[in-house]
Amino acid sequence: MSDTARNVMIDSQLRPVGVSDRKLIAAFRAVDREAFLPEGLKVLAYRDRSIPTDDGALMAPAALGLLMQALQLEAGQSLLIIGPGADYAKALAIELGVEATTVTGAKLTAGKSKDAPYDAILILGAIEELPQAIADQLADGGIIASGVVDQGVTRLAVARKAGGSVALDPFTDVQVPVLDQFSRKPAFTF
Q1: What is the C-alpha separation between 152 and 106, in angstroms, rounded?
Q2: CATH number of the domain at 2-182, out of 1.10.101.10, 3.40.50.150, 3.90.700.10, 3.40.250.10?
Q3: pLDDT by residue (tens digit) across 86-116?
Protein backbone atom coordinates (compact mmCIF):
# COMPACT_ATOMS: atom_id res chain seq x y z
CA MET A 1 0.00 0.00 0.00
CA SER A 2 2.72 2.47 0.96
CA ASP A 3 4.55 3.28 -2.29
CA THR A 4 1.43 3.60 -4.41
CA ALA A 5 -0.46 5.54 -1.73
CA ARG A 6 2.44 7.96 -1.25
CA ASN A 7 2.73 8.57 -5.00
CA VAL A 8 -1.02 9.22 -5.24
CA MET A 9 -0.78 11.60 -2.25
CA ILE A 10 2.00 13.53 -3.98
CA ASP A 11 0.23 13.72 -7.35
CA SER A 12 -3.31 14.40 -6.09
CA GLN A 13 -2.72 16.40 -2.89
CA LEU A 14 0.71 18.04 -2.77
CA ARG A 15 1.36 19.10 -6.35
CA PRO A 16 -2.15 20.53 -7.02
CA VAL A 17 -1.78 23.01 -4.09
CA GLY A 18 1.66 24.14 -5.26
CA VAL A 19 4.09 21.97 -3.30
CA SER A 20 6.81 21.76 -5.93
CA ASP A 21 10.15 21.67 -4.09
CA ARG A 22 11.83 18.53 -5.47
CA LYS A 23 13.67 17.67 -2.26
CA LEU A 24 10.50 18.05 -0.21
CA ILE A 25 8.54 15.89 -2.66
CA ALA A 26 11.29 13.26 -2.40
CA ALA A 27 11.05 13.39 1.40
CA PHE A 28 7.28 12.83 1.28
CA ARG A 29 7.91 9.92 -1.09
CA ALA A 30 10.52 8.37 1.25
CA VAL A 31 8.67 8.55 4.59
CA ASP A 32 5.91 6.06 5.49
CA ARG A 33 3.13 8.28 6.87
CA GLU A 34 1.26 5.27 8.24
CA ALA A 35 4.19 4.47 10.53
CA PHE A 36 3.23 7.53 12.61
CA LEU A 37 -0.35 6.44 13.23
CA PRO A 38 -1.82 3.87 15.63
CA GLU A 39 -2.74 0.50 14.12
CA GLY A 40 -6.45 1.28 13.73
CA LEU A 41 -5.79 4.52 11.84
CA LYS A 42 -3.07 3.38 9.41
CA VAL A 43 -5.64 2.86 6.63
CA LEU A 44 -6.41 6.62 6.79
CA ALA A 45 -2.76 7.70 6.46
CA TYR A 46 -2.95 9.12 2.93
CA ARG A 47 -6.34 10.82 3.04
CA ASP A 48 -6.31 14.54 2.37
CA ARG A 49 -7.40 15.58 5.84
CA SER A 50 -6.08 15.77 9.35
CA ILE A 51 -6.34 12.51 11.26
CA PRO A 52 -7.40 12.73 14.92
CA THR A 53 -5.08 10.84 17.27
CA ASP A 54 -4.77 10.49 21.03
CA ASP A 55 -2.43 13.50 21.27
CA GLY A 56 -4.15 15.83 18.79
CA ALA A 57 -4.21 15.33 15.03
CA LEU A 58 -1.76 14.44 12.29
CA MET A 59 -1.99 17.39 9.88
CA ALA A 60 -3.23 16.76 6.33
CA PRO A 61 -0.37 16.18 3.85
CA ALA A 62 -1.16 19.22 1.67
CA ALA A 63 -1.17 21.65 4.62
CA LEU A 64 2.04 20.16 6.02
CA GLY A 65 3.70 20.30 2.60
CA LEU A 66 2.78 23.97 2.14
CA LEU A 67 4.10 24.89 5.60
CA MET A 68 7.35 22.99 5.13
CA GLN A 69 7.88 24.50 1.68
CA ALA A 70 7.31 27.99 3.13
CA LEU A 71 10.20 27.38 5.55
CA GLN A 72 12.67 27.10 2.64
CA LEU A 73 14.66 24.52 4.60
CA GLU A 74 18.25 23.74 3.69
CA ALA A 75 20.49 20.89 4.83
CA GLY A 76 22.29 21.62 8.07
CA GLN A 77 19.70 24.07 9.39
CA SER A 78 18.05 23.65 12.80
CA LEU A 79 14.28 23.27 12.99
CA LEU A 80 11.95 23.27 15.99
CA ILE A 81 8.73 21.35 15.32
CA ILE A 82 5.86 21.99 17.74
CA GLY A 83 2.59 20.06 17.99
CA PRO A 84 0.88 16.76 17.28
CA GLY A 85 2.41 14.74 14.48
CA ALA A 86 5.84 16.23 15.14
CA ASP A 87 7.58 12.88 14.66
CA TYR A 88 6.26 12.60 11.08
CA ALA A 89 7.38 16.16 10.28
CA LYS A 90 10.75 15.39 11.90
CA ALA A 91 11.18 12.33 9.65
CA LEU A 92 10.52 14.53 6.61
CA ALA A 93 12.99 17.14 7.89
CA ILE A 94 15.67 14.48 8.42
CA GLU A 95 15.22 13.44 4.77
CA LEU A 96 16.03 17.07 3.91
CA GLY A 97 19.21 16.96 6.00
CA VAL A 98 17.75 19.27 8.64
CA GLU A 99 18.48 18.91 12.37
CA ALA A 100 15.00 18.73 13.91
CA THR A 101 13.89 19.01 17.53
CA THR A 102 10.30 18.22 18.50
CA VAL A 103 7.95 19.51 21.18
CA THR A 104 4.74 17.63 21.88
CA GLY A 105 2.39 17.19 24.82
CA ALA A 106 1.16 19.62 27.42
CA LYS A 107 3.79 22.37 27.22
CA LEU A 108 3.67 23.35 23.54
CA THR A 109 3.64 27.10 24.17
CA ALA A 110 7.04 26.99 25.91
CA GLY A 111 8.86 25.62 22.86
CA LYS A 112 12.32 24.24 23.66
CA SER A 113 14.72 27.00 24.62
CA LYS A 114 17.57 24.61 25.48
CA ASP A 115 18.57 24.21 21.82
CA ALA A 116 17.61 27.73 20.65
CA PRO A 117 18.00 29.73 18.55
CA TYR A 118 16.56 27.77 15.63
CA ASP A 119 16.89 28.62 11.94
CA ALA A 120 13.22 27.69 11.47
CA ILE A 121 10.16 26.84 13.55
CA LEU A 122 7.16 24.80 12.38
CA ILE A 123 3.93 24.80 14.38
CA LEU A 124 1.65 21.90 13.41
CA GLY A 125 -1.76 23.45 13.83
CA ALA A 126 -3.59 26.75 13.93
CA ILE A 127 -2.84 29.24 16.68
CA GLU A 128 -4.57 32.43 17.77
CA GLU A 129 -1.45 33.92 19.28
CA LEU A 130 2.28 33.26 18.96
CA PRO A 131 3.83 33.17 22.43
CA GLN A 132 6.82 35.45 22.92
CA ALA A 133 8.75 32.47 24.33
CA ILE A 134 8.58 30.76 20.93
CA ALA A 135 9.31 33.93 18.94
CA ASP A 136 12.40 34.40 21.11
CA GLN A 137 13.66 30.93 20.13
CA LEU A 138 13.78 31.83 16.42
CA ALA A 139 17.11 33.17 15.16
CA ASP A 140 17.07 36.66 13.68
CA GLY A 141 16.46 36.15 9.96
CA GLY A 142 14.86 32.75 10.67
CA ILE A 143 11.49 31.65 9.31
CA ILE A 144 8.43 30.41 11.20
CA ALA A 145 5.44 28.71 9.57
CA SER A 146 2.17 27.91 11.30
CA GLY A 147 -1.54 27.74 10.93
CA VAL A 148 -3.40 30.73 12.33
CA VAL A 149 -7.00 31.21 13.43
CA ASP A 150 -8.62 34.43 12.27
CA GLN A 151 -12.29 34.95 13.15
CA GLY A 152 -12.93 31.22 13.08
CA VAL A 153 -11.12 30.61 9.78
CA THR A 154 -7.84 28.72 9.69
CA ARG A 155 -5.08 29.85 7.37
CA LEU A 156 -1.44 28.98 6.80
CA ALA A 157 1.00 31.76 7.63
CA VAL A 158 4.72 32.45 7.50
CA ALA A 159 7.07 35.09 8.90
CA ARG A 160 10.74 35.94 8.82
CA LYS A 161 12.11 37.31 12.10
CA ALA A 162 13.56 40.78 11.64
CA GLY A 163 14.84 43.07 14.36
CA GLY A 164 13.52 40.73 17.02
CA SER A 165 9.98 40.95 15.65
CA VAL A 166 7.80 38.17 14.21
CA ALA A 167 4.49 38.93 12.46
CA LEU A 168 2.80 35.91 10.86
CA ASP A 169 1.43 36.73 7.40
CA PRO A 170 -1.33 34.39 6.11
CA PHE A 171 -0.78 33.08 2.58
CA THR A 172 -3.66 30.64 2.01
CA ASP A 173 -6.89 29.41 3.62
CA VAL A 174 -6.55 25.78 4.64
CA GLN A 175 -8.40 23.73 7.23
CA VAL A 176 -5.93 22.68 9.95
CA PRO A 177 -6.48 21.53 13.53
CA VAL A 178 -6.65 24.32 16.10
CA LEU A 179 -4.15 24.11 18.96
CA ASP A 180 -6.13 25.23 22.01
CA GLN A 181 -2.98 25.89 24.03
CA PHE A 182 -2.27 28.85 21.76
CA SER A 183 -5.60 30.61 22.40
CA ARG A 184 -5.51 34.38 22.75
CA LYS A 185 -5.80 35.54 26.34
CA PRO A 186 -9.08 37.38 26.97
CA ALA A 187 -8.66 41.14 26.83
CA PHE A 188 -9.77 43.29 29.72
CA THR A 189 -13.24 44.73 29.17
CA PHE A 190 -15.65 46.83 31.23
Answers
A1: 23
A2: 3.40.50.150
A3: 999 999 999 999 999 999 887 899 999 999 9
